[in-house]
Write a structure and sequence with these properties.
The protein is an alpha+beta fold and 385 residues long. The protein folds into 2 domains: 232 residues, P-loop containing nucleotide triphosphate hydrolases (Rossmann fold, 3-Layer(aba) Sandwich), CATH 3.40.50; 126 residues, Nucleic acid-binding proteins (OB fold (Dihydrolipoamide Acetyltransferase, E2P), Beta Barrel), CATH 2.40.50. 22% of the residues lie in helices and 32% in strands. The protein has 8 helices and 20 strands. The strands form 4 sheets. It has a 6-stranded mixed beta sheet with strand order 6-7-8-3-9-10, with helices on both faces. Strands 13-12-11-14-20 form a 5-stranded antiparallel beta sheet. The protein is globular, with a radius of gyration of 25 Å.
């Protein structure tokens, strides 16, 4: 008799565990300003130790949500729970929450150590505890050698670290970050993103960050919520949000995507066929949702999923699926990749991304070339809303 193979213990993330209790919970939260609805019946669960990002365009309600968590705004209706306690109408100074502002809000007349210790002195902690927390906080953000410096003597990245240390030494249960990296240049921002994530993992505090920067949110977050018009449209890991958007809005908001309008002509257990006026060939999408024939849908394909060639890849083009022909209108050279803007005969433009794996003096595909575009059925996604 064959022995049974041992069971693998797969780690389940808290948001995947039906028994796990959320650390932050919003229940049907609404907010109105002078009769204008800024948020309507929003519910959201965030778990302890998460680095959660709220991502959305200007005016979507993300900053209002952050301010309600901090206590600077009270919800018009609904409840906000932090660690099991209803904080809906608790003032900011009585909440186990700290907020790091976009401007960092450092006191210009105080040194680094005075800025970091300010909140601890307000709590009237002992000198010994203040000293210990101060030293630990500065060491955590690698600013121990800058104690006596004034804010104007620091770079943008250093000021950001001081502001972070000032927030962390208070040992909050929740740290809120309002566009924390907005004022940093690209290279410093990329380095600081990883440093911030490392610090968050070390201290174990739940972080909630508001941002309009998609790349920043995707890089740093365990999960993120995409907001539109006061509603959370989708919550998921960066991979889930990017590869499996639940709506046209989310697909179009996160990254670049090619969208094709069409009608379902066949739906099988394995795939869905869509006829689109945008293309002369039918679209085949590996099955992701049951859609009845005749339904109007949108098919999305990310630019990096599309292959581009000056010659046909398939011998019989009339039997091809998921393909298009066009003329290269423009090329964006970004160093590591090139983005090709290809115009179809009907005027529709498709984006295709190619990695620059080999250094060449001339592009293999260049302006005004006639090209063929192809993609696999599993690289398309049907968007019904």
């Amino acid at each position: 008799m064959a022995s049974k193979s041992p069971k693998r213990n797969l780690k389940m993330e808290p948001w995947q565990d039906p028994k796990a209790k959320p650390y932050i919970r919003l229940e049907n939260v609404s907010k109105e300003f002078d009769g204008v609805v800024a948020m309507s019946n929003l519910s959201l669960s965030i778990y302890q130790g998460e680095f959660f990002s709220i991502l959305g365009g200007s005016g979507c309600g993300k900053t209002t949500l952050l301010r309600m968590l901090a206590g600077f705004e009270a919800p018009t209706s609904g409840k906000i729970f932090i660690d099991g306690m209803d904080m809906s109408h608790i003032p900011p100074y009585e909440r186990p929450v700290n907020m790091m502002f976009q401007s960092y809000a450092l006191f210009p007349h105080m040194t680094v150590e005075q800025n970091v210790a300010f909140g601890l002195k307000q709590e009237k902690l002992s000198r010994k505890e203040i000293k210990e927390r101060l030293e630990n906080g500065l060491e955590l953000v690698q600013m121990s050698g800058y104690k006596k410096r004034m804010p104007h003597q620091l770079s943008g990245g250093q000021r950001q670290r001081v502001a972070l240390a000032r927030s962390l030494v208070k040992q909050p249960k929740l740290l809120l970050l309002d566009e924390p990296l907005a004022s940093l240049d690209k290279k410093l921002k990329e380095r600081t993103q990883l440093e911030l994530v490392t610090i968050q993992e070390r201290v174990g505090i739940t972080f909630i960050m508001v941002s309009h920067d998609q790349e920043e949110s995707m890089t740093m977050s365990t999960r993120l919520g995409v907001m539109e018009e006061g509603q959370i449209r989708q919550v998921g890991t960066p991979h889930e949000i990017y590869e499996f958007p639940n709506s046209r809005f989310v697909a179009d908001f996160i990254g670049s995507i090619n969208l094709f309008e069409g009608i379902v002509v066949e739906d099988t257990p394995d795939s869905t066929l869509v006829q689109s006026e945008d293309l002369s060939h039918v679209l085949r999408v590996s099955h992701s949702a049951t859609v009845p024939p005749g339904a109007q849908v949108t098919v999305g394909v990310r630019p990096e999923k599309i292959k581009i060639s000056r010659t046909p890849i398939l011998a019989k083009e009339d039997l091809a699926e998921n393909m298009a022909q066009g003329i290269v209108h423009d090329i964006e050279y970004l160093g590591d990749v090139s983005i090709y803007h290809v115009d179809l005969r009907n005027g529709k433009r498709i984006l295709a991304t190619m990695p620059n794996l080999v250094r060449l003096t001339e592009q293999p595909v260049t302006w005004d070339d006639k090209v063929y575009l192809y993609w696999q059925s599993e690289n398309g996604i049907i968007l019904t809303t």
